[in-house]
Design goal:
The structure is a homodimer.
Chain A lengths: L1 H9 L19 H10 L18 H20 L3 E2 L5 E3 H4 L21 E3 L4 H10 L5 E10 L13 E10 L6 H16 L5 E7 H11 L6 H8 L7 H11 L4 H11 L2 E3 H9 L2 H5 L1 H19 L6 E4 L12 E7 L8 H10 L4 H4 L9 E6 L20 E7 H9 L15 E6 L9 H13 L4 E3 L7 H11 L3 E6 L7 E6 L9 E4 L3 H12 L3 H11 L1
Parallel strand pairs in A: 1-4, 6-8, 12-13, 12-14
Antiparallel strand pairs in A: 2-3, 4-5, 5-11, 6-9, 7-8, 9-10, 10-11, 14-15, 15-16
Helix pairs in contact in A: 3-6, 3-16, 3-20, 6-13, 7-13, 9-10, 11-13
Amino acid sequence: MLRSLFTALRNMSTETTIPKAAAAAAAVPAARAEKKSKKDAGNAFVLKTPKGTKDWADKDMIIREAIFGTLSSLFKRHGGVTIDTPVFELREILAGKYGEDSKLIYNLEDQGGELTSLRYDLTVPFARYVAMNGISQIKRYHIAKVYRRDQPAMTKGRMREFYQCDFDIAGNYDSMVPDAEILNVLVSGLLGLGIKDFKVKLNHRKILDGIFQVCGVKDEDVRKISSAVDKLDKSPWEVVKKEMVVDKHQPEEVADKIGEYVKLNGSIRDVLATLKSDELLSKNESASTGIEELSTMVEYLEALEVEQYISLDMSLARGLDYYTGVIYEAVTAQSAPPTDAAEKKKKVTKNGADVEDASEYVGVGSIAAGGRYDKLVGMFAPTTKSGKTQSIPCVGVSFGVERLFSLIKQRQGLEAKVRPTNTQVFIMSFGGGADWTGFLKERMQVANTLWSAGVECEYLYKAKANPRKQFEAAEKTGCPLAVILGKEEFPEGKIRVKVLGTGENDDGDLIEVKDLVDVVKAKLAESKVDGVDEVTRLIRSL
Amino acid sequence: MLRSLFTALRNMSTETTIPKAAAAAAAVPAARAEKKSKKDAGNAFVLKTPKGTKDWADKDMIIREAIFGTLSSLFKRHGGVTIDTPVFELREILAGKYGEDSKLIYNLEDQGGELTSLRYDLTVPFARYVAMNGISQIKRYHIAKVYRRDQPAMTKGRMREFYQCDFDIAGNYDSMVPDAEILNVLVSGLLGLGIKDFKVKLNHRKILDGIFQVCGVKDEDVRKISSAVDKLDKSPWEVVKKEMVVDKHQPEEVADKIGEYVKLNGSIRDVLATLKSDELLSKNESASTGIEELSTMVEYLEALEVEQYISLDMSLARGLDYYTGVIYEAVTAQSAPPTDAAEKKKKVTKNGADVEDASEYVGVGSIAAGGRYDKLVGMFAPTTKSGKTQSIPCVGVSFGVERLFSLIKQRQGLEAKVRPTNTQVFIMSFGGGADWTGFLKERMQVANTLWSAGVECEYLYKAKANPRKQFEAAEKTGCPLAVILGKEEFPEGKIRVKVLGTGENDDGDLIEVKDLVDVVKAKLAESKVDGVDEVTRLIRSL
């Protein structure tokens, strides 16, 4: 009876054979979903997620889990512990930490309680946590969502709700030792995710400040000149110079002097040599301190084998107010806007598409960034009787998961191999005739036995299911094994275990029901596929 | 030289030996942190998290990870895929889904864009996702935070920001097949977390509706009478009856009839037999359908070996509007308020403590709950030309992680064994004299070698560190191995590997530096301790 069913199956179209890679079919591509939601506008309201946010579908989640797993095991390798903080903070905690960007903070409505806002990054909540708990040293990682009311560019991974993966070292230590380790974490993290064509730009806030001083920028103008320099990754020097002279009222000669310095970049040792030979900078206290620190750091970077990934770049300024020492930013070739961005942008606007579409023609920006911030914890620390506040120096790095995700997802051959479920066994029943019950309860019992043994398995939620439907369902999950309850075989204590996708002539093995768990486990030892583990390997190697 | 250092160390106090369990010291107990934050009120503002929210400290995170890991591997065992949705939804998506509880929704401020609100649960976003993507069947799990502006009772795990772990099956299937599997998931989830003294209350909305009809409740009053019945887990019948008669204007005889039905509870088969023998109910269409469905289900529950955990309880009503079929709720002995709750509450208020403290004297409530909701997806589905909307039937369960966490954390002996880091090796250097460099760069090189080999290791961020400080730091991490660079040994290509906590007379093994990775891996094969894995085992067994 069972044999003849197998024969019948053999005569079916090849669609019903079960290739492992076929799992792809089950997923809903996000792009299609988005289109669909727009079409359904006949409904009472448009079904969508809020602007700048998105759903993560099943296959995307597997890739995301692989990225999180890669990064969190890296952080653990360096002795990191993890913490979590609320999605919203008291509004006063966030106030005065982000400079101009504070306008991008999401506020919660005042519903008659405390005033709160969604967190803008994980750094300020971390500093609040360190101060509130009186912690003197901690290495912590935190993987969580942050919120910015920015102009989104979805396909590039620029979102209003997005994940950050942060690793920070807080505590008083010998100079530049944790800083060098953070750069090792940054480089290892990107390499572990299969990102190879990246470059880490490094600079030091104290050197930058020294440069502005020796060029004649007044102290009160340093922050705004710094934020002009920060635009050099997107705009040519002429534009930035104009901003300094016209908008920010610097004499042209001051701007020109700055222009000479900020074009310096290259290997850390080369640029340090140039800076050291600069008489003006050598006499400047701030610059000298920065230069000395980087001279110490380069030795550590060599020992940690990351020196070669880093270039010292005087044009790197980083926007955030709270940095006080080294700053760094990793970029890839894809970080930059495409060379035809301006042209494409123009065309899109001409054809009447909305502004958001045009913003797709920007780069993804930095894929990981960070720096030293020695004063932030002190902003939350209690003031002592002598009027001093004690701060805990910190240094850290933040990986931009959405940007990394969009780079990784584009890779040739990855998405087709992602299997959204982890199902290993599909339980089927074969039978027929007027007295055929369908063995639904029996399939449940077998499933329960396998679940209890830790085996991922499924069966059709149908009292009587025909073989073709069951094979199709198994194929959808992409699972490697079928367990088959035959109408005559099962009541005799026998059950069939078949490796799927092995070709037409394999009827599987008929075994004793009592041996099922052992046989399944033995077969899975060869053929089990863990989705996240496999994707983690793929991401590293593709 | 190195030998004499070991001898010196032997003469140190026993504090410097490294017992593995000593890792506890590193963590900051949340309670202490909270107290501290109140003391620091001398600061510009009180350092705290918003009301009803909390930070998760390092050790708590390990327990949480173990809980999430246990539940997500359970969900995967049943063929679940995972998705993620934004923390906030368009406000109109949430409108009209939660009945009276809608007032507990957190709104985001109108900052000149769409009106949005924080999600109240994961069920409505799931239904929106299914409808928006035109999905006809999916088994999905989702572990994420939800938000309710409720009165918090923190130590019991009643929070304003809290996690839910949901598993739902959407699709048209044979009656009660997925429903029974969801109950299997519920029971397996609790057992997998070491919860043994629980009971699952089961009921069916159609039976309840039938009961209200045969007792003479008008159709328009059914929802409000149902929500009165929902209070029976907290209030005695007399109080609920009074609410029905006085507040909700039901004739006393109607209330009395309801009272007879809702006190029915016991094994599913017994209660079903009672209901079937009831003439009024047998003639009621709604009740008959429910009774028939449960009669089918009990067979499946038997096959899935969960029948014995479940009692059919006519007093279970569940608050949410969207349920249409079976409903269920798991409770433990600790779910109920303590018997002296009323007394304690009074005392606390008398002594002038705030209201929030009094609310600690409630139970944790249900620890997992769910039901069938066949109409919710249809509320988002597009209307067809014939004016029909097609809904996708769903059934699911939600685990209350904070409540489970607070039960698990209380367990004797668990917290002391939680190690917040996963560090396996501490790298030290021993030396002295005027020419002693401290081997900082050398420790970095060794660390980098071990990190590259996937080994979790740390070293002191200090150029010259004395042996005692290094052993103390190793002890804090609770790591099992030390790797020691001796001033004379290391330049000769030798390095020492010592198992920590093995007593005074063990100097470790002096090996070739080139063999380090192999030796460390071999030793860790015996002594490696993975924090989350160990806690997962402990949670299951304690």
